[in-house]
Design brief:
The complex is a heterodimer. By secondary structure, chain A is an all-beta fold. Chain A contains no helices and twelve strands. In chain A, a hairpin with a 5-residue loop joins strand 7 and strand 8. Chain B is mainly β. In chain B, the strands form two sheets. In chain B, strands 2, 4, 5, 6, 9, 10 and 11 form a seven-stranded mixed beta sheet that branches. A four-stranded antiparallel beta sheet of chain B has the order 1-3-8-7, with no helix packed on it. The mean pLDDT of chain B is about 95. Classes of the chains: A mainly beta, B mainly beta. At the A-B interface, strand 5, strand 6, strand 10 and strand 11 of A face strand 4, strand 5, strand 9 and strand 10 of B.
C-alpha cells in the first residue's frame, strides 16, 4: 500500500528566507509524485509534479522539488518565500491511477 | 477554459438527512474524483468515475455513493448523514490517464448538525 508522510505539521519562516517542506513516501511500485497548495477557503492547486526524467522539478511560484528514489523523498523548496506563500501544502502520490494518496499537510506561515 | 465547478459551495443539513453534491469537470476531462477533507483525517479519496463507470473506490461506507453522467458531470450522494460527515468535499477532474494533473474545484463545505 502507498502512504505519504509529511513530518512537519507547521513551518514558520520569515519573509525572504529559504524554506524546505519535507515529504517521504512508501510504495512497492513506481509512483508519480505531486505537491499541491491550498489557500484558505479554496480548493487545491498543483504546484509541481514528478512523473519521470529529471529528478529536479520546477513548479509555479518559484517552487521546486527533488525526487530522491533511494531516500523515497520528494521535498519541496523555495529559496526566498513571500507573505503570499502562507498556505497549506500537501504532498501526494499515485501509481498511475487517478487515486491520489495525500500526506497530512504542512502549514507554511510566513512572517514579515 | 473554465475550471472545475462545484455546487453548492455551502450546505447545512441535520443528522439523518441525505445530501447530493454536484461537480462539473473541465471541458474534455472524462475522469472525476471525489475527496473528503476533515481536520482529523485530512484528505481522503472517496471514489473516481471515468466514462460513467466507477473505476476506483476508497474506504468509505456504502452511505457514500456517486455517479457520472454522459457529459462527465458527477454527483456525490451521502445518505443518513452523521455528524462526522461534516467536511469539505473536493472534486477533481483530469483526462483520466493517471499521469495527468488532477484539477480541483473550490469544494462544497458540508455542516451536519
Amino acid at each position: 500500500a502507498q502512504s505519504v508522510t509529511q513530518l512537519d505539521s507547521q513551518v514558520p519562516v520569515f519573509e525572504e528566507a529559504p524554506v524546505e517542506l519535507r515529504c517521504n513516501y512508501s510504495s512497492s511500485v513506481s509512483v508519480y509524485l505531486f505537491w499541491y497548495v491550498q489557500y484558505p477557503n479554496q480548493g487545491l492547486q498543483l504546484l509541481l509534479k514528478y512523473l519521470s526524467g529529471s529528478t529536479l522539478v520546477k513548479g509555479i511560484n518559484g517552487f521546486e522539488a527533488e525526487f530522491n528514489k533511494s531516500q523515497t523523498s520528494f521535498h519541496l523548496r523555495k529559496p526566498s518565500v513571500h507573505i503570499s506563500d502562507t498556505a497549506e501544502y500537501f504532498c501526494a502520490v499515485n501509481n498511475n491511477t487517478d487515486k491520489l494518496i495525500f500526506g497530512t499537510g504542512t502549514r507554511l506561515q510566513v512572517f514579515p | 477554459k473554465a475550471g472545475v465547478t462545484q455546487t453548492p459551495r455551502y450546505l447545512i443539513k441535520t443528522r439523518g438527512q441525505q445530501v447530493t453534491l454536484s461537480c462539473s469537470p473541465i471541458s474534455g476531462h472524462r475522469s472525476v474524483s471525489w475527496y473528503q477533507q476533515t481536520p482529523g483525517q485530512g484528505l481522503q479519496f472517496l471514489f473516481e468515475y471515468f466514462s460513467e463507470t466507477q473505476r476506483n473506490k476508497g474506504n468509505f461506507p456504502g452511505r457514500f455513493s456517486g455517479r457520472q453522467f454522459s457529459n462527465s458531470r458527477s454527483e456525490m450522494n451521502v445518505s443518513t448523514l452523521e455528524l462526522g460527515d461534516s467536511a469539505l468535499y473536493l472534486c477533481a477532474s483530469s483526462r483520466g490517464t493517471g499521469q495527468e494533473t488532477q484539477y480541483f474545484g473550490p469544494g462544497t463545505r458540508l455542516l451536519v448538525l
